[in-house]
Design a protein that fits this description.
Layout (H helix, E strand, L loop, with lengths): L2 H11 L4 H13 L3 H10 L2 H4 L2 H13 L3 H9 L10 H13 L3 H9 L8 H14 L3 H8 L8 H15 L2 H14 L4 H13 L3 H14 L4 H13 L3 H14 L4 H13 L3 H14 L4 H13 L3 H14 L4 H13 L3 H13 L9 H11 L4
Length: 376
């Protein structure tokens, strides 16, 4: 007999016992039996359902089912003073606020949390993930610094690896990732880092294996779908790459790099309208990101809209003097003037200073210009 079945028998014989009920709910939730837990809560007496322990587990059911607003309401009813509230309640409230799109409120909730009941790692991980989403990468690494040993240390190391990767320090990222993978070969973020670093080095078989490992356990991992799409793009299967990258944007719509990757895939197909829509999505997320303005410049240049391209190039280089997309746009304008050698040198300079698979060679830009050139 399973532990859940055993606890269910006890709870049925003593239906007003809150300890038995909460133990049973915890077991059901740990087993992923969300519907059974919610049904059990729905059947208890109103007085039992109003108890803090039961209400907390009802909030967790709501959270796991995606009903963040209901979870927030339930959890807020348990907190009269956030500074003295149990860390688990504060964590779940902040998590629900974050999932509901209110990152700043979630950070404010966490700012008052205390970790006296041993949830230090959980609180630190959540804070770091929120800061990561807000692109405050150094602050996110700092949030993880207190966690030196814990049952969730490999998760801390994996997230820290991903933060170092997004900062651009692949050496530290790989070191942290390998530490995490020694303990947990399936650690999500660590495998993302391993796959991405291999992708940038164009070790595509190794990269694909890492991303496939992630997707086997985390089928909604946007970063893994992004990596798979970039892998397939490099292998030359553009339609499949586009499909993978579109999947990535559906599960990770607030990641600018994913929209950029999809835009480049659409450019490979000569779909300038699609690329413009993808750059528009990136622009809606951050209007000050130089590479997005560089993407606009490239689309304008490929459409023979020289004035608009030049204006976008100015904005892009002001925001990011080292941006690549604006330079690609400049190379297209040079091609239009017949200055082929200058265009090639400009692109070769980009390739020379861009590690791994992040640069687009001159021949592609030349072919792309021919692909979209009006016929007649």
């Amino acid at each position: 007999m399973s532990r859940a079945a055993l606890l269910a028998g006890f709870a049925d014989r003593d239906p007003q016992n809150p300890v038995l009920l909460c133990d049973l709910l915890d077991e059901l939730l740990a087993d992923g039996r969300l519907d059974e837990a919610a049904a059990r809560i729905g059947k208890v007496s109103p007085s039992l359902r109003e108890l803090p322990g039961v209400r907390f587990r009802e909030a967790r059911c709501a959270l796991l089912s995606g009903n963040t607003k209901a979870a927030i309401t339930l959890l807020q009813s348990l907190i009269s003073n956030v500074e003295t509230a149990p860390a688990g309640v504060v964590h779940d409230l902040a998590y629900a606020q974050f999932a509901d799109g209110h990152a700043e409120e979630a950070l404010q909730t966490l700012a008052h949390a205390h970790d006296a009941d041993g949830d230090t790692a959980a609180l630190a991980l959540l804070k770091a993930r929120i800061l990561h989403r807000k692109n405050q990468l150094e602050a996110a690494i700092e949030a993880l610094a207190p966690i030196q040993s814990d049952t969730r240390l490999s998760e801390v190391q994996g997230l820290r690896a991903l933060l170092w990767l997004d900062i651009g320090d692949t050496t530290r990222a790989s070191e942290e990732a390998e530490l995490a993978l020694k303990v947990d070969p399936d650690q999500h973020e660590a495998n993302i880092v391993r796959g991405t670093v291999a992708l940038w080095a164009q070790r595509l078989q190794e990269s694909t294996a890492a991303f496939e490992r992630v997707l086997a356990k985390h089928p909604e991992s946007g970063r893994a779908w992004l990596g798979m799409g970039q892998n397939v793009m490099l292998l030359g299967d553009v339609p499949s790459a586009r499909s993978l990258l579109e999947r990535a944007t559906t599960v990770m719509p607030d990641h600018i790099g994913t929209w950029h990757a999809l835009a480049w895939c659409q450019l490979l197909e000569g779909d300038l309208a699609g690329a413009k829509r993808s750059f528009d999505k990136a622009f809606a997320l951050d209007r000050t990101f130089g590479e997005t303005h560089g993407g606009f410049a490239l689309v304008h240049a490929l459409r023979f809209e020289r004035k608009e391209a030049e204006e976008s190039i100015k904005r892009a280089t002001r925001l990011d003097p080292q941006g690549r997309a604006a330079r690609y746009a400049q190379s297209v304008l040079l091609l239009d003037e017949g200055r082929v050698d200058e265009a090639r040198k400009l692109i070769d300079d980009i390739v020379a200073r861009t590690p791994g698979a992040g640069a687009i060679p001159a021949d592609f830009i030349f072919k792309l210009r021919d692909l979209v050139r009006p016929r007649g």
